[in-house]
Records
---
Amino acid sequence: MDKATIICKCEEITYEEIEEVIGHGAEAFDDIKRLTRCGMGPCQSKVCSHLVSQVIHEVTGKPFDEIPVPRTRMPISPIKIETLATNSTEFSTVKSVLDELKLEDGRVK
Ligand code: FES
């Protein structure tokens, strides 16, 4: 890849910027995220995480199975803010793993 290639389109992080932080010791996507904001855009790294793994592989020579996967946090898919604000047990119409949860007193059964 060219050094000017945009890896994270949301935060406009280039290959060169990622290469630089790897040179300073970043070894995983989460390290790169903290140092550059890569992956903190609206898509929450759905577009750039695999590209960052590619850059780590190219720069360090690490096999893909040795590159740690990014940490994921809830909610995994979008839910309505109303659901969070009202402590609703009915989740949004967006299909997600949250649709499978059963709540009792605001806790997962
Ligand atoms: S492309 Fe990186 S956060 Fe969206």
---
Amino acid sequence: MLTDQQVVRYSRHILLPEVGGKGQEKLLNAKVLLIGAGGLGSAAALYLAAAGVGTLGIMDADTVDLSNLQRQVIHATPDIGKLKVESAKESIFQLNPDVFVLAYPEHATADNVPRILPEYDLVVDCCDNFATRYLLCDAAVIYEKPYVYGSILRFDGQAAVFKPPAGPCYRCFFHEPPPAGVAPSCQEAGVLGVLSGLIGLIQATETIKLILGVGEPLIGRLLMVDALGLEFMTARVKRKINCPVCGNNPSITDLRAENYCQPNCDAKQEDQ
Ligand SMILES: [Zn+2]
């Protein structure tokens, strides 16, 4: 049951027939795991917290750097040098003390994800590297958790929801990681800061819809955003029956560390 304060705090949600008091209770009971407290994670975490998503797990091993503040709005100038998960936890508490934050100051690995992910209802991918992304893709299929994907680079962004068997997984779109050095990172190629807000909020929107069970989630559709032309395009992709993780005869049935290491995988992670 909602308290008097919660009825006021969430009144604009409660007014919506698609949410109402019952929907707000679903949000308060939901447990969402965010991988990365960078640009995408900042936007997603702040709005999920404001919306009253009751438990947010945040995983990121990095500390706040001056160069992050152009887009990572959950952190502020006095937070430079602090662990991002601690800075994010403080910001969320200021915004909405209803939200319980579990901070994991570590990189997502084949060791810790099997321990942590099963505790959550779904995972939001706010990371910036392919090793983590393929790990999360496979873990989400193995542990049957919806996976809310987002990615940004320069002026372009992507978002999707992967929820096999209702739709494809990330590997159905992109079978294997690109060879090292082919796909540059934001650190190498730059990113328009506001794009992390745009895509992070699409991820937050999809997360809330999945929790409430309303609308048409981005399942089976890859949303591509071109910020310069301001165009939103959607590509439809079906689940592939020969997919190595969500296909009919999967070859990937558990997480093995050696499958998720790239030559640069010790470099800075979860920073997008
Ligand atoms: Zn697949």
---
Amino acid sequence: MVNTNPEILEKFKNIDSLEVLINPNDLKRLSKDFYSYSPILKSKLEGCMADLVVRPKNVQAVLEVAKICWEYSLPLTIRGSGTGNYGQSVPLSGGVVMQMNYLNKVESICKDTGFVKVQTGCLMGQLNSDLQHKGRELRLLPSTWKTATIGGFLAGGSGGIGSIKWGFLRDPGNLIGLDLITIGENPQLLELDAQQSEPINHAYGTNGIITSVIIATDIRHYWHSIIIDCNSLSESIDVLKICMGTAVELKLGTILEKDIVQQMPKWFNQYSVLDKVLIQSTLEGIRTIEMICKKYNLSTNMLGIEDELENGLNDLVWNHTTLQLRAKDKSWTYLQMLLPLDKEMELINKLRNSYGRKILWHIEAVSQNGFPRLAALPVFKWTDKKELYEIIDLCKKCGAIIFNPHVLTVEGGGLGVVDADQVKAKNRYDPKGLLNPGKLEGWNKKEKYII
Ligand SMILES: Cc1cc2nc3c(=O)[nH]c(=O)nc-3n(C[C@H](O)[C@H](O)[C@H](O)COP(=O)(O)OP(=O)(O)OC[C@H]3O[C@@H](n4cnc5c(N)ncnc54)[C@H](O)[C@@H]3O)c2cc1C
């Protein structure tokens, strides 16, 4: 135990510009994320706790933490704001949790390219607001964007508001480079370019400590929010696809089926409880969306500029839909998948045949490899693991690609296969395997991947 070994504790305390926390309440609080959305993870992770939490105030302090962890072979788990869903920042083997919140400066915004270099502990809400003052904005926002850090999003997130246009974080062009600290006898600060950064992207902080990232940004837009009322889920899918096929700019395209709408905050369902399509577009785009709705006889509610709304759509979409349901009843859980192209209703109907209205459909429009696709984050009340995997199997049989939020590893939550480049990067930058142990499956069979 680090915190009961006076020699090690003293070494951490002697680092300038490092906050050291050993109070059990802090250790408990800063060892958790939102894993309780999965009853499976909840039972696995409830007891996991760091021995020590540190908060570096500059890069030098990070280098010194890395050196001590190497010297004493201490597990080191990096933490942003702890809004991850899969126990991503939970220290499975105890050790040190390093929270990056003080490393939060926007370092530069390039006028010509719009690339921003920012320290990883910067909150995305703050970063977006700084960018907006310079006429730019973040391309991708998780629905937790107000409280999540940019480093946590890059290492743990995948996409969100903006994915309809910009795809996913791992798509080439979103991450331009990063600064990384290695774990070793003499930890190094490396500047990686876009290609070298790829294996670090979405690796749960298992293969390097990221201190800064360079990401691409979009020109600032004033996104207007509109709600379209539909008479069925299949009509909602048709309308969303028509909107995706128009010559307008979109930031968001979400479908909530009416049983979900019923459970959303009052302001949202006060007019009608119907299946709804939620769109964010530019003002010119909204005119086209309204024209389409008129043509199909669908009524709309224009809310206004999303950033200026007291109640906006951002709090109802992506995993915030699940959050809203869980605010009422903690037995709601969810799945994540890419729906089969043009066979979305076929899959939904097959699931309906087996499970009736137990599974409720929440759909998000995304761009996948440049093509418009529909992803889904269906919600259902938890029964047991057996049923969960039966649902997963049926979805897979119907052609869905599952991103399972009930597992702990990078691979399990992704495509289910080891990315050899992530393992090689871990071998290079964290050869003792101290960073976030237990989260990179490929590391257990590293001989197979490191040639
Ligand atoms: C209600 C809800 C809605 C959500 N919506 C979305 C969504 O729309 N899209 C989405 O992608 N995700 C979503 N998430 C998941 C999560 O909020 C995001 O991925 C978020 O960006 C994580 O940021 P964080 O600062 O909280 O990171 P944390 O949870 O603290 O960390 C996430 C991972 O990144 C690693 N990490 C953090 N900082 C660093 C660093 N500097 N160097 C190396 N590794 C690091 C951690 O070790 C951990 O493995 C949602 C979660 C909830 C609970």
